[in-house]
Design goal:
301 residues; DNA polymerase, domain 1; hpI Integrase, Chain A; 2 domains; three-stranded antiparallel β-sheet; 54% helix
């Protein structure tokens, strides 16, 4: 009896799927779908919208016929070829795959296509490489320069990068009101966080001392013309070329060396899992226990 009911239910679902496949659907081109998605996501951060627009425009510019191609007529094999031809590295493939996956999910919701072809493609494997944090000499040189009058306006922002692991894009959106002195945390609202979720970063004593010395109460933490000032500070410290996100890696490595609290570190950095933290962000090679203790000691550097 149970087997008969299961067969009936299976047949019912199969008929439903076949009926949906036979339904006439609106013919929507890739270009129209992209524009509709951007309008529907208008509330997202400009950087997110810019990445979606940039990737899709590049695909339409490089792939003949893609602009006018119906989204219903883009099978799995065709999408796999798009990723292979127009993303030269596994990391670029990951980014392009995420954007196309979101686009086709939207198309399914709008009933412009029956299924998402990207969901049938395996995610590319990305080999994470060890990223080396700043050396002890580089840290001290950078802080020494940041305390000079011509660079001192950058010191609070530098402190948040070095002792809180805030992402550079998140830093530029932070205000002094985000510092909760009573709870001893830095609050990143969901609209400011890269991952879209609010997080509270522990305000370490060394960073609390630096932020208090700035004597600001409102407005953005980054000074006006931040990018230009920040580049001049790095150049003055002799950190040329600059390694992207090196301060975030430095924060993670010194935190792990000193506190051995991976759960706290994962929460502060805003990672959904500890996998990325362990494979990409931690490089304690060359960091001594004495240096780690001094790094987190107020006034030691």
């Amino acid at each position: 009896m149970l087997e008969e009911l299961n067969n009936r239910e299976l047949c019912r679902m199969l008929r439903l799927v076949l009926s949906r496949l036979e339904e006439p659907r609106e013919v929507v081109s890739f270009a129209v779908a992209v524009q509709s998605l951007l309008r529907a996501r208008a509330g997202r951060r400009p950087r997110t919208l810019g990445e979606i627009s940039s990737v899709c425009r590049r695909l339409m510019r490089r792939e003949p016929g893609l602009r006018e191609r119906c989204v219903q007529d883009m099978p799995r094999n065709y999408c796999a070829q798009l990723l292979e031809r127009h993303a030269s590295t596994p990391r670029q493939q990951v980014k392009m795959r995420i954007i196309l996956h979101g686009l086709f999910e939207y198309c399914v919701q709008q009933e412009w296509c029956v299924f998402n072809p990207i969901s049938l493609l395996p995610a590319p494997l990305v080999s994470e490489q060890e990223l080396v944090p700043l050396s002890w000499e580089e840290i001290t040189r950078l802080l020494r320069m940041a305390r000079l009058p011509e660079h001192s306006a950058c010191l609070p922002a530098l402190g948040l990068l070095l002792w809180a692991g805030v992402r550079p894009a998140e830093l530029e959106r932070l205000h002094w009101e985000s510092i909760d002195w009573e709870e001893n945390v830095i609050i990143l609202p969901a609209r400011h966080s890269k991952t879209g979720g609010c997080r509270h970063i522990q305000l370490q004593p060394v960073l609390r001392r630096i932020l208090r010395s700035a004597r600001c109460a409102r407005g953005r933490i980054c000074p006006p013309n931040w990018q230009r000032r920040w580049r001049r500070l790095r150049d003055a410290a002799g950190l040329i070329p600059w390694r992207q996100d090196v301060l975030r890696h430095t924060f993670a490595s010194y935190h792990a060396k000193q506190f051995h609290d991976f759960a706290r570190l994962q929460e502060d950095m805003g990672h959904r899992s500890a996998a990325l933290l362990r494979t990409r962000y931690l490089s304690m090679r060359g960091i001594t226990a004495a240096q780690a203790a001094q790094f987190w000691k107020p006034g030691a550097l």
